[in-house]
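Before surveying the methods themselves, let us examine one representative protein, pairing a chain with its fold in token form.
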Amino acid sequence: MKAILTHPGSAHKDDFLACCLLIARHGLPVWRRDPESADLDDPGILVIDVGGEHAPDRGNFDHHQFPAEHVPICSLSLILQHLGLYEDARTFCEWLEPAEWFDSRGPFATADWLGIERSVVNRLNSPVDITLLRRFAQKRELEPGDPIWEVMRMVGEDLFMYLRTLRERLDYVSVHASVLEVAGEGSSVKILYMPRTDPMPDDPSSGLGRYIEQIGEKIDGLIYPDRRGAGFGLSRHEDSDRLDFTRIAEEADVHFAHARGFVAKTSATDLARLTELVARALV
């Protein structure tokens, strides 16, 4: 591999992030200029968001030649597909599909698709977006050691790590977690229970929400190991109004219950006791 080549002029989120991933994977310099025929013919030069061709075997990843009725797609989509990460990215990165729409359909069509006022789109910009894209656009070449190149490497590395570790975490949760039905006075709720394991993940509750999305069940609460102690955390899922953990604040083995009732911490470890506390929190 020799280099990453993308178009000069204005930079957009899709070509910026596509280059981030390729920098993180290959550690290549970035050239910002129009490609020549020799560039398109050289598989060692990865041509991104320009060139009029999608030919991964030749290292070319443009989407502008696709017909107007093509599903929304961008150069980042093509790179994610090439890296075998697209399906996971569409599942776990809620920002990806709007980015595809924005790049291929424009801000107004994207706002209409999202069901929001068109003026809202501009309100979602931040100085982080503006500065990084502007500084990237000002460069003709970026090499290792350049501050923008190094930030792009970090962005790519973090995205790779997020997708890899979340997939691993979901596989882990699917093996160990279980759905419990907890009954109270005249009603019941479904709880996702994550037991304490050895070794323990750094964040025992991470991935639980994503796992619930995958299994498609209506879950009102979570029981999971407390990463700050030997007990467990009890919490609402998606702020369910079926649970109010202030109702168990006075229990001897509950050492914290948030005043808004959405989470509590207990020293209890026995599952029967944990489900009893959830039952007492039922509204």
In short: The mean pLDDT is 95. Residues 3-167 form one domain. The radius of gyration is 24 Å.
